[in-house]
Every structure is written in structure tokens, then in C-alpha cells.
Specification:
disordered C terminus; single chain; alpha+beta; five-stranded antiparallel beta sheet
Length: 302
């Protein structure tokens, strides 16, 4: 029978996986390097009002399952350490060892591993065109109305202006009988011509750590994108869209109030399902957001 409880902290201090903290020890439940949250778990987080709370709830439940394995392994290590101690019985009661663990060891999960998981994010824009079910970006091609003025709420018009062009230049490119000299304006025209449905939201496609997305939901902020970011018209409601090949002319900062980011596939039809694209389509092209600067009058003129 074990009669010297003062030896317990000495025994536990010899186990490499435990670290002392105040008057007890902490064991980290480390996931396999390849472990990731499943799409179903990401969808649960995406649909929750408090997304960080949903994340922790999922992980806490998973960690509880892992804890049983950790406790079994810890008991094996305790027995191993005790074999080298003369004043510890050769055979230790299993229930007593569980009591040791309950009294002396706290378990914590490695949440950072999952928060660092890279996710495929669609940065859907809503500059007011959401009020009309995203029907204001159909300048030409499918569902376009000839000679219909471009609505000021159109997110595609917002993009044109913030790429250094005017509404007049856009209209000229749309009516011209030959290709635009601007690769950007020509790509906007081509994108519109390739849509096949009425509802089309301007969307950017990026890759980011889950932590950054959850931080954005907790405190929305502007997002700055490199000109190399994939961009196009996307219809998640009907499973359609354009060619997703708008070529940005320069880096772009989008105010938080216009952004509706979501993990691909968690808002109706996902890009991977619609187009069959691989994950390489989403790029790590989010840049640090520079201090706000006043746009020149040429960028906002009609």
C-alpha cells in the first residue's frame, strides 16, 4: 500500500510530458500533425452566432475523448517511473493512480494547432446590391437589360472605381465594338459575359488561418488584397457564376462593412462543388491594411 503521498509530485516531475504549474502539473493533449477540423465541424462554426464559442465547444468535446487515451498513457509512465523508486510498492492500484491524476494533473488542448488550420475563404462583397439579391452586376450577357443604367449600389461598379477607373470608362468599355485597352476592364466585360444566372455577387478567393477568420467575425476590419487575388462573379444560391478571371489592376482595400466572408461550401453551393477547382485556386494574398487615405477625385467621378 502506498503511504507516502509527498512523493507524488516528485514522481510526476520525472514525466517529460508534464510541466509544473503552481501546485500542480499540466499535460497538453497534442494532436497528430495532420489532424484538422472536418468540413462538418467548420460548417457548425460558420453557422454559429458566437463562432469562437462554437470552436471551443467542438474542441473541448474532442479533447475529452482524447483525455482517456492520455490518462492511460500517463498511468503507464507513472508505473515506469515508480519501478526505479525503492519506497514505492511494485504494484500500484489503478484507481489510486487515477486519483493522483485527478488531483495533480490538469489537461489542456492544443487549440493553436486547429486555429492555425488554413481555410478556403470566399470574400463576398455587398455594397448594397444584396438588397436586390445581387442582380446589379449583370452589365452584359445573361439577364442583362440593354441600356439599363448601372446602379450605384453595384459592387462591380465599386470595384471599377477603386481600381482607378470611372463609371464613364466602364460604360465605354461595355459598349465598345473592340476589346478594351485595359486588361482589367476587359476582364470585367468577359466575366459578365460568362455568367449563366441572374444573381451574381462580386467575390474574392483567399486562403487564411482559421484564427484570422474567427478574429474577423469577432471584430470586423478592412481587408487588403494583392492584385494577384482571384476574383469574379459568384452565385452560391444557384450554383453558378462567371469565369472567375477578373484581373485586378492594383491592390485593393475593402471596408469591413462591405464584406461577407465565408468558408467555401458553408454558404449554399461552394466553388469547389460548382467548378471542381482544387484548393490552389485560393491564394494567400491578404496584405497588411495600410492607413486609410483619401481617394483621388478621379477614382470617384462618374
Amino acid at each position: 500500500m502506498f503511504t507516502n503521498p509527498s512523493l507524488i509530485p516528485q514522481i510526476l516531475s520525472r514525466i517529460a510530458g508534464l510541466r509544473p504549474q503552481d501546485d500542480h502539473f499540466v499535460a497538453t493533449i497534442s494532436p497528430d500533425p495532420t489532424d484538422q477540423l472536418s468540413f462538418e465541424q467548420l460548417q457548425t462554426i460558420a453557422q454559429a452566432t458566437d463562432k469562437y464559442a462554437a470552436f471551443h465547444e467542438i474542441l473541448d468535446e474532442f479533447m475529452m475523448q482524447c483525455r482517456e487515451d492520455e490518462e492511460t498513457e500517463l498511468i503507464r509512465q507513472i508505473r515506469e517511473v515508480c519501478e526505479d523508486l525503492d519506497d514505492v510498492p511494485a504494484s500500484l492500484d489503478q484507481a489510486m493512480l487515477y486519483d493522483w491524476i485527478a488531483q495533480w494533473v490538469d489537461f489542456e488542448g492544443d487549440y493553436d494547432h486547429y486555429l492555425n488550420q488554413s481555410v478556403l475563404v470566399n470574400l463576398l462583397m455587398n455594397t448594397g446590391d444584396g438588397d436586390t439579391d445581387f442582380t446589379l452586376n449583370n452589365f452584359v450577357g445573361y439577364a442583362a437589360q440593354p441600356r439599363q443604367p448601372i446602379d450605384e449600389r453595384s459592387s462591380l461598379l465599386w470595384l471599377v472605381r477603386h481600381q482607378g477607373y470611372t463609371k464613364r470608362q466602364l460604360n465605354h468599355a461595355l459598349r465598345a465594338s473592340q476589346a478594351s485597352a485595359s486588361p482589367f476592364l476587359q476582364s470585367v466585360l468577359t466575366e459578365c459575359l460568362n455568367t449563366t444566372s441572374l444573381m451574381n455577387a462580386l467575390t474574392f478567393f483567399v486562403r487564411m488561418p482559421l484564427r484570422d477568420l474567427l478574429d474577423w467575425y469577432a471584430k470586423p476590419h478592412p481587408i487588403t488584397l494583392s492584385a494577384q487575388t482571384a476574383c469574379g462573379l459568384y452565385d452560391p444560391w444557384n450554383g453558378a457564376g462567371g469565369s472567375l478571371e477578373i484581373q485586378l489592376a492594383q491592390n485593393l482595400t475593402i471596408p469591413a462593412k462591405y464584406l461577407e466572408p465565408h468558408i467555401d461550401g458553408t454558404r449554399n453551393h461552394g466553388i469547389q462543388d460548382i467548378y471542381g477547382l482544387s484548393s490552389t485556386f485560393w491564394t494567400d494574398t491578404i496584405l497588411p491594411t495600410p492607413p486609410l487615405t483619401r481617394r483621388s477625385s478621379s477614382q470617384v467621378s462618374a
